[in-house]
Amino acid sequence: MITIKEKRKTRIGEEFIFSLKAPISFSNAIRRIMISEVPTFAIEDVYIYENSSSMDDEILAHRLGLIPIKGKPLLENEVITFTLEKEGPCTVYSSDLKSENGEVAFKNIPIVKLGKGQRIQIECEAIPGIGKVHAKWQPCNAVYKQIADDEVEFFVETFGQMEAEEILEEAVKILKNKAESFLQQLEMIEQ
Fold first, then answer.
1. Strand intervals (E) in 1-118
2. Where in the chain is the domain with CATH 2.170.120.12?
3. pLDDT given for residue 102 in this prediction
4. Which end of the chain is more exposed for a tag (fewer CB within 10 A), N or C?
5. How far is the C-alpha of 167 from the C-alpha of 77, rounded, in Å?
6. DSSP string, 107-163
7. Residues contacting 153, CB < 8 A, separation 6+
8. pLDDT tens for residues 56-79?
9. What is the pTM of this model?
10. Are the CB atoms for 118 and 88 separated by under 8 Å?
11. How far apart (Å, rounded) are the C-alpha atoms in residues 39 and 151?
12. How buried is 100 (Cβ within 10 angstroms: 0-12 exposed, 13-18 middle, 19+ buried)?
């Protein structure tokens, strides 16, 4: 049984506190899946057509990859394309990333400062992935503490890609699918 205790917006997402009456092993499985197996979007492929800034292409691509992208992937091969074209002097922010099929979770993340005459022109693609592959796909941090026998209190902090309840629901679905798959494999062994 899940009891929601608190939910509040923060500057980087949400804080979500709930208690769960379940064995510790089950609670830990949910926590691990929330962090490492719930799919989210992150910028993976960056095409730099022009970069006369003082930042190396590789660092610029890395910074773009760490910007949280809103949305829950519906298809495995779904792609969100962003473009960025800016000329200095200015600071380039995540809000400068333009897309017809997606959006960044936070508009105020600085990417690079451009001096007079400096320019960047970039196209990048956000694809679905999981935190087990790279931390840029982690939708949250999750910890818990035991408050009674077979009862824990979770503290979940999201990064803006998805709502906390949505992350929890996805984690439960993933765990259910894993359990069903395991049972099917056991049945095949018994035959």
1. 2-10, 13-21, 40-51, 80-87, 90-93, 110-114
2. 40-135
3. 92
4. C
5. 20
6. S--EEEEE-TT-EEEEEEEEEEE-TTT-GGG--EEEEEEEEETTEEEEEEEE-SSS-
7. 5, 17, 18, 19, 20, 144, 145, 147
8. 999 999 999 999 999 889 888 899
9. 0.88
10. yes
11. 27
12. exposed
Assigned fold of 40-135: RNA Polymerase Alpha Subunit; Chain A, domain 2 (2.170.120)
The type of residue at 42 is A
For residues 104 and 64, give the distance between their C-alpha atoms in angstroms, rounded to a whole number. 10
How many whole angstroms separate alpha carbon 30 and alpha carbon 178? 12
